[in-house]
Amino acid sequence: MAGKLSWRLKRIAYLLQRLRGSVALRGWRGTLSRIRQEFQPPPARDDSLELIALDEPFAAFALPCPEAPKVSVVIPVHGKREYTVACLRSLSRHGAGVPFEVIVVDDASPDDTVAVLGQIKRLRLLRNAENLGFVGSCKAGAAAARGEFVVFLNNDTQVTAGWIDALLRCFAERPGCGIAGSRLVYPDGRLQEAGALVFADGSGWNVGRFEPRDAAPFRYRRRTDYVSGAALMIRRETFERIGGFDPRYAPAYYEDADLAFAVRRLGLEVWYEPASIVVHCEGISAGTDLDAGMKRHQRPNQAVFADKWKVELGRQPPPGTPLDRAVRWHRRGRVLVVDATLPDPTRDSGSLRLCEILRILDELGWSVAFHPDDGRADGAGIDRLGALGCEVLVNRDIGRLPDWLRRHGRELHAVMLCRHTVAGQYADLVRRLAPQARLLFDTVDLHFLREERAAALAGHTGMAQQAGLSRRSEIALIEQADTSFVVSPYERELLAQLAPSAKVELLSNIHRAHDGLRGHAERRDLMFIGGAGHPPNVDALRWIATEILPRLRDVIPDLCVHALGDMPEALHRELATPGLELHGRVPDLTPWLDRCLASIAPLRFGAGVKGKINMAMSHGVPVIATTLAVEGMQLRHDHDVLVADDASAFADAVRRLHGDAALWDALSRHGMDNVRRHFSPELAAAALRQALD
Hints:
Elements: H1 2-39, E1 71-77, H2 81-94, E2 100-106, H3 113-117, E3 124-127, H4 133-144, E4 149-153, E5 157-159, H5 163-173, E6 177-185, E7 191-193, E8 196-198, E9 204-206, E10 222-223, E11 231-235, H6 236-241, H7 255-265, E12 269-280, H8 298-308, H9 310-313, H10 323-327, E13 334-339, H11 349-363, E14 367-372, H12 379-386, E15 390-392, H13 395-398, H14 401-408, E16 412-418, H15 420-433, E17 438-442, H16 447-458, H17 461-480, E18 483-486, H18 489-498, E19 504-506, E20 526-529, H19 535-555, E21 561-564, H20 569-574, E22 580-584, H21 590-593, E23 598-601, H22 611-618, E24 623-625, E25 642-643, H23 647-659, H24 661-678, H25 681-692
Parallel strand pairs: 1-2, 1-4, 2-3, 6-12, 13-14, 13-16, 14-15, 16-17, 17-18, 18-19, 20-21, 20-23, 21-22, 23-24, 24-25
Antiparallel strand pairs: 4-11, 5-12, 6-7, 6-11, 8-9, 10-12
């Protein structure tokens, strides 16, 4: 009786402690929501996860076991054979894009685990002579591993398609990555962990527990304090260098947090990788009672951890820090970026540039959020920006942007508004609701300049009047902003005359140079990059179809121009011309850039730097373009580019390139050099650093 009363008192004290902690971290509204989640009965499992049934009759199957694995998956087990078999079946079902091996370390299981697992072909099965716990079993598995990378995986998990490949991408795309961890979900489909936090007293917190697993706030890659050992990837060399899991935490608990802090001490980083999804039946392996079973080691091991890392813990957020702040504790500050739509690099060059800006902001240490003004964000788009380290703010999660700014405006270090149509809506609102934030206006290109040139080409009075209105509104926004970005030196010089008091920085297109794979002799045909959503592109395609292409085919009768970009069906019908092939938007331009002789840019109006030119040159493809198209790009005729302003000049340029391999090689080489000098990520980072610091 006394024992039961003691347990109840402990239970009440524990629940009150959890309640106080939750209110401090989430606030009362978040705590009440969390209580509803706790007591609302969830479904037993989410069928969309396609989990393997635990009661499925056993039949022998095979796992990969290559001679030279890239990854070694280490699974410590102690009983619970049905969970282990389901885990191994999921590994066999989903595989990976790289060779991997599976090592199961049996930790003196009391059931028939060894006998059953021995029937699985090519499984590497190790046996501990005595029970060593999680720490000792992982050490034994890692010692036997042959892969460059080791993944520690709980036996009460089931993996999903692409989980290993996503973790490897994190290492490849984040050079400082020392540990990468998966997005853990419960079998009922709710989120279990999206990375984990450590507070100054050594206590931990799983980010996102019981939230919807596909909510946008948990779908972006980010640095975190640690990730659960239930699904953790590390380089084998790094694991060996730090001595593996610290035996002080044997048999289990806090060994994953300790490993993360040891990796961070080496100057490496711990990353949460949302694209790697692993289903985890938490509690199966260790239970949930803090005073019984394996779980009883949690509190004493926290004390060990706090003593070992007391210096580093002094830099962690104090207990009770709101979660929204704690998640960003080691970031330099928060930056909000707003554009008209979610960027898609396969759609237009402006999207490619913006995605590079988001990537660079994350690399510079800022916590980055993006809001599409049209409110639309599909899952693929959210994940695409998530891989850049950018959180997407979608209307279904935040309401309207003004509401979000009222709640979070005071947290922002800067707000970047892209295009004058977006900046015109929100500039005053940002000044009022986030007065401390730096207001950045990314013009993308000067809209009024493009409108003025279109009006001049068309000789249209109404268009000229509209351009005048755009000029006045755009100049006013440039003068209001703390910093405005333009993409070309020409535009910066123009604004020095029109808005001399404004601070204007050059933030041009951003490209990485790629050496072309094929030489002059293996190439044929021309390409035009650009969709019909941009009026200068439509005008250029009409000029190609009616005047340029007929002259080109006089020079090379079977020559084709391949147009790559979104095109409505009506334009397909209008431009039906022998030799002009409209392919629509393609997922990857590289195959076309590797086969075409040259890229053409016959633009007769427009503004800004032309991404179609940068893209071609970054792959070593020579460009033939109008004078207006190369404006502000520091390109010289016959050195970096061939300039042509009428159909005959285009035909002559193609004739020269077709017959002169030395000219083609020189233009290819000089074009890539131009990209490196004027359009590199390093230059963009310097401009952003100047504006934000």
